[in-house]
Amino acid sequence: MKMTLSRLRYRATLNKLGYEELSNGNTVDVNTKLFDFYYGYYKQSLSQSVSSNAFDYLKDKVTIVVRHDDRFVTAMNDQNYTITLPSPNANTYNVASINPDYELNGYDTIVLSLVGGSSNTTNNSSTTNTSNND
Questions:
Q1: CA 21 – CA 29 distance, rounded (Å)
Q2: Which of 38, 54, 132, 134 could bridge to 58 as Cys pair (CB 3.0-4.6 Å)?
């Protein structure tokens, strides 16, 4: 993939889920920051989206491009790794899939899946507009 560093203008964090024991003996989940990295958004064409069954697959997903790092490949196979994107998303994601580029100065294309997001939910709520015109 041909790309320039100027496209990587956003900053995110790779985290690993850990546990912290409280003074009362209970444990709580804690995201431990591993490192910050720069990324850019990746836009797929309509044909790429359709060929990957994207309409359901890409719900609650974000596709980004980063400089190659083997830790992203590790994160795909371990749900304890998360990636936190800054505002306006300000959400936490797991690595759903990755297309690594092992070449020198390579760029990885990563599909992130929203933590706690569901691709099978639909919005069945209806809104009723009531007004008082007295």
A1: 9
A2: 54
Q: Judge whether 72 and 93 are in contact, CB under 8 Å.
A: no
User: Measured between alpha carbons, how far is 65 from 16 in angstroms, rounded to an integer?
Assistant: 20
Angle 35-75-88 (CA atoms, 0-180°, nearest 5)? 60
Distance (Å, whole) CA 52 – CA 76: 18
HSE, CB side, 13 Å, CA atoms: give it for residue 129. Answer: 1
Q: Which residues sit opposite 82 in a β-bridge?
A: 15
Q: How far apart are CA 13 and CA 76, in angstroms?
A: 15
Give the Cα separation of 101 and 65 in Å (integer).
Answer: 11
Here the tokens at position 5 are 């560093």
pLDDT digits (tens, 9 = 90+) for 21-63: 889 989 888 888 888 998 888 776 545 545 555 555 556 788 8
